[in-house]
Amino acid sequence: MMYHGIGGPDGVTPEAFERQLEALAKRRRIVPLIDAVDSLGRAESGDLAAITFDDGYRDFAEFALPILCAKRLHATLFVPAGWIGKRNGWDADRPQRQILSIRELRELDPGTVTVGAHGLTHTRLLRLQAKTLHAETATARTILEDACGRAVTLYAYPYGQRDDFDMAAERAVRDAGFIAACSTIFGRSSRPDERFRLRRVGIGPQSSLTMVERMLDGAYDWTILKESLGALSREAFRRGRESVGISHRRPY
Length: 252
Description:
By secondary structure, the protein is α/β, with parallel strands linked by helices. Helix content is 38%, strand content 13%. The protein has a four-stranded parallel sheet with strand order 1-4-5-6.
């Protein structure tokens, strides 16, 4: 399961988050992401679920964490290392959210929250130079480990669709010492060979409880094909614009 902001005009409400966790718990056993990764390829993998949050927002600690603690559940929080203590400046046209500070990251109980990396500058990792890829992976890991005082071994690609990272990015993540990486590609499960592009079910403020339940039950698996076609279309469009010297970047 993938979340971003909790509360606010473009976030999942705490009440909806709690109901969604209850729906998930009825269907699968909720475990830390690292445990789900370790189970890939095994029979029990299909019975497990993990909760993840991208962007490292303070509202995770304010609104989601108390619910997780009350239910004794674990979540992985992916933080863009270069934005610690700042706001989501990469989303200039969207509501601004505060990102956790170093002190707040250190206060997170590792028994409840695993801190993962979400790049350095929250940029797409597609077709980046080796030096920049190193900064977005290895340097980001070092900064986060120094900030939170614990090992950081999980990664989530910023934006995370099929046309937002490539094989070079996957290799950079692996070479930086991460043991797995999450995409935003839709999917209720991942194969062992997708360890560095794990699929997730994305939940947003528009996701009603019925919709979430249907996603968990497979009614939205057709989204996989839709996303693939969308990525191919965007990549063709991007290449066309680049051929005439016009850059293109998706806003989220």
